[in-house]
Specification:
Layout lengths: L5 H17 L17 E5 L2 E3 L2 E3 L1 E6 L5 E7 L10 H9 L3 E5 L19 H16 L4 E11 L1 H9 L9 E5 L5 H8 L9 E4 L2 E4 L12 H5 L5 E7 L7 H10 L2 E7 L9 H18 L3 H10 L7 E2 L3 H5 L12 E6 L1 H4 L3 H12 L2 E4 L15 H7 L5 E5 L3 H4 L24 H15 L4 E5 L25 H15 L3 E2 L1 H4 L7 H4 L9 H17 L2
Parallel strand pairs: 5-6, 5-7, 7-8, 8-11, 11-12, 14-15, 14-16, 16-17, 17-18
Antiparallel strand pairs: 1-4, 2-3, 4-6, 9-10, 13-15
């Protein structure tokens, strides 16, 4: 049932006006000054769409060859200049960036067109014409074209994507204004109520902005036609476009990642919120550009690749006892073997997500160990990972059971000159992972989960067993070596071998029949301890 919500409309107008006035604060330096850097050049390039000249700026890396490209679409009343900070970041990384002004999309835009004629459908046509132009450039790899839209530009990118699914690689939707039809119905419950022109959020728009919503238009059916990869980023405190709209979209798309930035409103005006937004985008694009052979190999090893990103239940997160803890609202990446990635492990990781208001992304692969020789090792997983706030190294049993050398805390450290040959040991692999993760993000928190017990043999769960593997080391010695490596670097350790309270008297409640892998009850038992540890590293 459609109804007018006057308080929401007043809030919408006030919030939007405030955001638009503050938009220039998003770009360091003089407002709307195009960024410059020796690594790229800027060219003013226009195209014609529906008879209107669209103004745009292309930022092109100076390095030779074809480059991936990102087309950036602005929000209601904004302009291309709102993307300058993102442009500077991506162009330096080798992306062609094209930001432009929609026809009639802003009072201050440089494109032709009347604001009274503008709608998300005219802007969709603008974007479709821009896509054709950018794909034709010699500097662009037309198999690596991305769409990125903010607010109304995110909505436009979403409804355009199904029309060009074979021409784009993925889309990024940033607080996408999928609420526009609902907001129109709230203002004008029936088509007959829609005026010829009206001033809304500081800009004069026409009947065209609303009229196509009244013929049974369903925006979620419209966007569902896109089957490619989607990144959605939204703030939990966005009062202009409620995050529930993005949450619903993430369920509509078959292949989506949904990231919430806790405490962020519309526009991501605070530096820490914009930094998180940029990090999400860079990580997503980096993974999209990962060689296809690696993507295929990972998919073949993982039991359920589509389930490896877990997001918090917003209501649970807001009522969490860890609200305000050091790692609340952060992004967590997990590396490990089957115990970190099998379907049952999602029970634990979902609890982390809900309790910590965190997104949890798993890079783990069954059969992996720390030794470079052990499966798709944690070293290889770390090499392919993006930038996160928190990294979890979850030790498996695989190095021990497959007779990979245990090594010592000094392997692959300054003590041996980072001897590459030591990467074949468990300890050398641990130290390599720690070093590489801190190279990716020097400010990251790294936490270590020791191996859990396994009960197929006495040595797998008895800390006093003297039965070694073929290298002459017991499983307990492998666990102690894990802790020694972490002690050298000051990495907090959750001792899962000794402190989880699972033994021969209760193992059947928590492990599968193989006595190696946990069942869901096992993960439910250890998850609260893990979440408490991850909240602050203690």
């Amino acid at each position: 049932m459609r109804f007018i919500c006057f308080y929401r409309l007043i809030f919408l107008a006030a919030a939007a006006a405030f955001w638009l006035l503050a938009a220039s604060a998003q770009v360091p330096g003089r407002p709307w000054q195009a960024p410059t850097d020796p690594s790229y050049e800027m060219r003013e390039i226009s195209c014609v769409s529906d008879g209107n000249r669209l103004y745009g700026e292309a930022f092109i890396p100076r390095s030779p060859g074809k480059h991936p490209a990102v087309i950036m679409s602005h929000g209601y009343g904004a302009t291309h200049a709102g993307f300058y900070a993102m442009v500077d970041t991506l162009a330096k990384l080798g992306y062609v960036c094209y930001c432009y002004d929609f026809a009639g999309g802003s009072r201050s835009g440089r494109s032709e067109g009347r604001t009274e004629d503008m709608s998300i459908f005219t802007e969709r046509q603008n974007l479709l014409d821009v896509i054709e132009m950018v794909r034709s450039w010699d500097c662009v790899d037309d198999e690596s074209l991305f769409l990125l839209g903010e607010s109304q530009g995110g909505c436009v990118s979403a409804i355009a994507a199904p029309y060009v699914a074979d021409k784009i690689k993925a889309i990024v939707l940033v607080y996408p204004a999928l609420c526009i039809p609902d907001d129109g119905f709230a203002l004008y419950p029936e088509l007959g109520n829609v005026p010829d022109t009206v001033t809304f959020m500081g800009m004069r728009i026409g009947r065209a902005y609303y009229e196509r919503f009244y013929g049974g238009f369903d925006i979620y059916k419209e966007i569902a036609g896109y089957q490619g990869d989607v990144l959605i980023v939204h703030g939990t405190e966005d009062g202009l476009v409620k995050p529930e709209y993005s949450a619903k979209a993430s369920n509509v798309y078959e292949h989506s990642e949904f990231h919430l930035i806790f405490g962020a409103g519309h526009g991501f005006r605070k530096p820490e919120h914009r930094e998180a937004y940029h990090t999400y985008v860079i990580d997503f694009l980096t993974r999209q550009m990962r060689p296809r052979r690696i993507q295929a190999y990972l998919s073949s090893l993982r039991s359920d690749p589509s389930a490896h990103t877990l997001r918090p239940d917003v209501k649970k997160a807001k009522n969490s006892p860890y609200l305000g803890s050091k790692n609340y609202g952060k992004r967590i990446a997990v590396f490990g073997g089957s115990l970190s990635v099998n379907p049952e492990s999602d029970v634990a990781k979902q609890l982390w997500a809900d309790m910590l208001g965190a997104e949890v992304v798993t890079y783990g692969v069954g059969g992996a160990g720390f030794s470079i020789d052990q499966g798709y090792s944690l070293q290889k997983q770390v090499d392919t990972a993006g930038v996160y706030d928190v990294y979890v190294l979850w030790a498996s049993t695989n190095d021990f059971t497959n007779d990979r050398p245990c090594g010592s805390w000094a392997d692959y450290t300054a003590a041996d000159g980072y001897d590459e040959s030591k990467r074949h040991t468990q300890c050398g692999g641990i130290n390599y992972c720690i070093r590489r993760l801190l190279e990716k993000n020097p400010r990251a928190e790294i936490y270590f989960f020791t191996s859990l017990r396994f009960f197929g043999t006495d040595s797998g769960h008895n800390p006093y067993s003297v039965v070694p593997n073929n290298t002459g080391k017991t499983f307990a010695e492998y666990v102690e070596a894990q802790k020694a490596c972490c002690a050298y670097y000051g990495i907090p350790v959750l001792d899962q071998f000794n402190l989880q309270g699972i033994n021969e008297f209760n193992v059947e409640n928590y492990y599968k029949d193989d006595l190696l892998h946990m069942n869901e009850e096992g993960y439910r038992r250890i998850a609260p301890v893990q979440a408490a540890f991850l909240s602050n590293g203690r």
